[in-house]
Sequence to fold (206 residues):
Amino acid sequence: MFYILAYLVLLACCGMCLYRVGRGPTAPDRAMAIDILGIVVVCFTALLSLKTGQAFYMDIGISWAILSFIGSIALAKHLEGRGFDE
Amino acid sequence: MNSVIGMVFVVIGLAFNVLGCIGMIRLPDMYNRLQAATKCVTMGTSMVLIGVVIASGFSITAQLSVRCIICMAFILITAPTAAHALAHGAYSSGVKLWDKSVVNRYEEDFPKEPPKQEPE
Fold:
């Protein structure tokens, strides 16, 4: 029961992030919301891993965090008008 | 007992997450939204990971605890970095501050260049 409530709360967080992705007036808003969504999903995988006792769900979380970070940096560099390696 | 303490940490972290996401919905400006969302969600996710470590019995040989600690360290390093890069990119791509903002220290230190030709 506790886990179901926690998953519903996290789904509400993901829904708010997706609302900002769809609604956001400017491009950096959408990039920021994608970044926040990546961090919330790490929370989700941690709770799922605690519930089921399987440690490999945390691997999904770690790789999701790394990919989200790289994507945010690339989008920020693009918004700034520079290439990825400058 | 460990499980109860871990669940308390998880609940506090979830509350931080929800408040950060509500701030991301409600605040008027891109920079305000970035500040609220990044700080609250980073703190909340770190607390949830600490709670998972405690509830899973925090032995250093357990795979789950080690992965949670690695992930928490990674998030604590990278989330402020990504937020800083996004704020800098947004400012230099020409996103306006809110109308009722009172001060802009960045513009005092680095006066604004003439606008670029391309719209975005």
Notes: Residues 2-109 of chain B form one domain.
